[in-house]
Amino acid sequence: MEQFRLAPEELTWRCDPAQFEFESTRDLPALEETIGQDRAVTAIEFGLGINNSGFNIFILGEPGTGRSSTIKKILAKRAGGEAVPDDWCYVHDFDDGTRPRYIHLPAGCGKELHKDMETLVGRLAEEIPKVFESKEYEEQKGRIASEQQEKNKKLFQELEERANEQGFLLQRTVSGLALVPTKDGHPLSQQEYENLSDEDKGDIDRRGTELQDHLNEVLRQGRDLEKEMREAIAQMEKDVMLFDIGHLFEELEVKYKEHEKVLEHFANCKKDILDRLDEFRPSEGPKIAIPGLKIGGQEPPSFDRYRVNLFLDNSEREGAPVVYEANPTYFNLFGRIDHIIQMGGATTNFTMIKPGALHRANGGYLILDCREVLINLFSYEALKRCIRNKEVKIEDMAEQFRLIATVSLKPQPIPLKCKIIMIGTPMLYYLLHQFDIDFRKYFKVKADFDGMMKNTWENVQQYAMFVAAKCTEEELRHFSPTGVARVVEFAARLIEDKQRLSSRFLDIADLIREAAFYAEQQGADKVDRSHVELAIEAKIYRANKVEERIQEMIEEGTLLVDTEGEVVGQVNGLSVYLLGDYSFGKPSRVTVRTYLGKGGMVNIEREAKLSGPIHDKGVLILSGFFGDRFAQDKPLTFAASICFEQSYSWVEGDSASSTELYGLMSSLAALPIRQGIAVTGSVSQRGEIQPIGGVNEKIEGFYAVCKAKGLTGQQGVIIPAQNVKNLMLKDEVVAAVRDGQFHIWVVGTIDEGVEILTGRPAGEPQPDGSWPEGTVNFLVDRRLREMAEALRKFAPGKNEEK
Fold first, then answer.
1. Phi, psi of 30 (to 5 degrees)
2. Which of the listed residues 123, 261, 426, 531 has the most CB atoms within 10 Å of its CB?
3. Which fold has domain 2-32+454-543?
C-alpha cells in the first residue's frame, strides 16, 4: 500500500512569494495586455484588421473570462488613432415629403449647418412677413394694378366709342355689360323697337351681332389682362421675396460651396418659399395660432421644413466610435421615428428621426451581447439585413403587421461601414453556426476565450499586475507578495489543475475586493495571505449551509456513513453536490448484493428513474469487465443489485463505477472492505481507473466526515493516478496527511484499488488462465464458477437424466 500513498508535497501547489520583486502591488506598472488569451487576441486583431465583407467578430467564452473588458480595451486603443467619421443630417424631402434625405459632412460641419439653418429659419420667419408690408411691394403692386386698369379702361373706351358709332349704347347691368340700340341719341324701348320696320330691325340686329362679338372679344382681353396682372403680381412678389431673402442664403452658399447636397437643399428651400407665398401672405382679421389647428381655413405657416435634423454629431469625438449597446432592442439598434400626439392624432416629420446604436457606431465599432440580441424581437434578422445590404434603414417594425397601410416617413437609408463584435457563450455560437446559414457568412472570425491558462512564471507575474491594476482602479488596499501568491493559488484551485490557472477574472476580482475589505477592517496597510484566506473562508461560510446540514446528519447517524471497520459488499463512494456558486463533496454508502441468477446487474437508481445516462453507462461497463476477465471459460450466471443508500435525488456521472466494481468483487469474494477508505474514479472494461472531476471537493468532504467521527490514522481516499495534477487541497487536509492521520492513495487499475481496500493481493492471471490461490480474483472466479455449477443443476432436463 505504501507505493500507492501520496506524499504531502503532492497534494497541493504553493506559489512562492519570493518570485515577486516588489514589496507592494502599488510598485507594479499598469497591466497593458490581456492575460493568457493569446489565441483570442490574435483572432480579434485579425478580425479588426481585415476590411472584407462578413469578417465581423464573434467572441465566445464563459462569462468572467475577460471577453468584454478585453475587446473594449483593444478597441479603445485602436479607435483612438483612426479617422473621425462624418456628421449625418436629415433634411426635408421637397418632392413628396415622406422620404427625408441625408446629407453627410465632415465631423463638426453638421453641427455648424444645423446652427446656421436654425438662424436662417429665424431670420426667414422675421423677414418674409415684412415683404408684404413693405413700401416697395405696395408700390410695385399698385403700378402693376394701375397699368392693368389703364389697359382695361382703354379697351372699354374703344368699345364704347365703336358702339356709339354703330348706334348702340353700352350699359352695365346686374348680369354684366349689355348693348342697347339708340335712335337720335336715345335708347330704344321695346315698344319702339317693335314699331320699326323689318328692314330697320334687321339692320339693328346685324350691327348688334357684330358689336356683341366685339364685346365678347373685349371681355376676353380683359380677362387676359387680369390674368397677366395676377401673373405679374405673382412674379413681382417672387422677385421681391427672392431679393429680400436671397442675401440670407448667399453667405451660406459661399460657406458650403464644396458640398453639393447642401447647395441643393438651399435651392430647394428657396424654390419652396416662392411656391408657398400664398401661405405667408398675411390674412385679414385676427388669427390665433394653434399648432395643428386651422383658424378660418388657414393654418399658420411653418418653417420647420427648412431646418436640418442633426442626426449624428461627431464634432467632439476623437477617433472612431466604439459603441456598446447593452439593450439592443430594435429601436435602440436601428433608430426610430418619434411622433407627437395632437388633437388625438399622431404627427411626425423629419426632425423627429432619431439614431440607433448602429448609426452611432458607423465608421467605427459596435459591441453587442448575443443573448440580448436574440431575445429582442426583430433585432437579429434586421442586423443581418444591415450587414447584407451595407446600409441602415429606419423602418416601423410594426408596419408589416398592420391590416391597413398608413402613411409614414421612410428616411433614406444611411450607408453602413461598421465592424460588429458579438459576445456570447460557446453554446450560442455553435447553435447559430449550425442552424443559421447566414451566421457563418456575416461572422467569419471566431475569438475563443479560454477558461484557463498555463501556470508559467510569466502568467504568474501578469496575475500580480492584474491584482495591482484592480487595486488601483477601485482604490483598494494593495497586496503584499504573500497575498498575491495566495490569489494565484486560488486561481489554480478554481481550475483544479496545478499546471494551469483560471481565466475567470470575475471570480478573481471578487476575491481581491473581499480580501481588501478584511484588510481594511483589521487596519492593515497591505493585504497579505491571511486576509485572502479569511476572504476565501468567509465566502465558503456564506454558501455552505447545506453542506453543514449534511455533515450534521452524518454525525448524528441520520445519514449512514461508516468510517471504521470492515463490511462485505459495502463501499464509501464520493460524489459532488453543485449548488449554484458552491460545490462540495459528500460520501455516500454504496451497497452491492450478488446472488444466483441470470438477471445481470440491476441498477436500483436506474429502475427508480433516479439515474442519468452517464451513470447508467458506467454500470453497464461493469458487465464488460466481468465478461472479459471471468467469462472466458464459463458463463456469467449471477445477478447483482447496486444501490446508493439513502439517495433521494438524481445521480449522474460515471465516477462511481469503480466504487460499484469494488463492491461487486467484495460481495462475490466474500471479502470485507475497509470502511475508513472512500473511493472515486470511473473504470474501463479492461479495469483501468480513469480520471474524474471534483477530486478536491470529494477528498475534503470525506475528510470532514472522518474528522467529525474521529481520525484513526487508517482513513483516506483512493483516487485515479491521473488526478494527482488536479490536487489543490486545503492546508488542513495536507497537514493531516503529513501527520499520518489521513491518507491519499492513487491507483491506475481496479486490482490496485482492491488490494488497498481488502488488504489482500488482487492476483495476476497464470499461463493457464487461472488465478493464484487466495487472491481476490481467485475468490471471485471461484464464486462465479460455483454459481455456474449451481445454476446448471437447475437447468431443464437434469432431473430426467438422473
1. -70, 145
2. 531
3. Helicase, Ruva Protein; domain 3 (1.10.8)
Q: Which candidate, 513, 534, 527, places its Cα nearest to that of 470?
A: 513
Secondary structure class of 633 (helix, strand, coil): coil
> Which residues touch 399 (CB under 8 Å, ≥6 apart)?
405, 406, 408
Q: In whole angstroms, what is the distance from residue 35 CA to residue 188 CA?
A: 119
CA angle at residue 369 from 46 to 410, to 5 degrees? 95
Q: For residue 317, give the nearest of 31, 513, 85 by alpha carbon.
A: 85
pLDDT digits (tens, 9 = 90+) for 547-589: 888 888 888 888 888 888 899 989 999 888 888 778 888 888 8
What grid cell was written down for 719? 483516487
Closest CA to 757 of 619, 658, 620, 629: 658
- Cβ contact 338:103 at 8 Å: no
**Ranges of each domain in the chain:** 2-32+454-543, 37-85+317-449, 110-160+199-313, 549-793
The answer to whether residues 647 and 603 touch, using CB atoms and an 8 Å cutoff, is no
| Cell representation of residue 569 | 459488499
> What contacts 577, CB < 8 A, 6 or more positions away?
546, 547, 583, 584, 585, 586
DSSP string, 725-781: GG----HHHHHHHHTTSSEEEEESBHHHHHHHHHSS------TTS---TTSHHHHHH
| C-alpha dist (Å) from residue 209 to 165, 214, 269 | 14, 9, 54
243 is written with which cell numbers?
431679393
Nearest-angstrom CA–CA distance, 425 and 62: 6
Is residue 689 helix, strand or coil? strand
DSSP helix/strand/coil, 131: helix
The two beta strands, 452-454 and 500-502, are antiparallel
* Rounded alpha-carbon distances, angstroms, from residue 329 to 356, 358, 464, 708, 777: 10, 12, 40, 55, 67
Q: Assign domain 37-85+317-449 one CATH number from 3.40.605.10, 3.40.109.10, 3.40.50.300, 3.50.50.60.
A: 3.40.50.300
Looking at residue 95, what is its pLDDT? Answer: 87
pTM of the predicted protein model: 0.81
DSSP helix/strand/coil, 559: coil
Cα separation of 411 and 762, whole Å?
83
Residues 315-351 as b or e (16 or more Cβ within 10 Å = b): eebebbbbbbbeebbbbbbbbbbeeeeeeeeeeebbb
Kind of pairing, strands 176-183 and 186-187? antiparallel
Rounded Cα gap, residues 203 and 201, in angstroms: 5
Dump pLDDT digits (tens) for 43-76.
999 999 998 888 999 999 988 888 898 999 999 9
Q: How far apart are CA 159 and CA 205, in angstroms?
A: 17
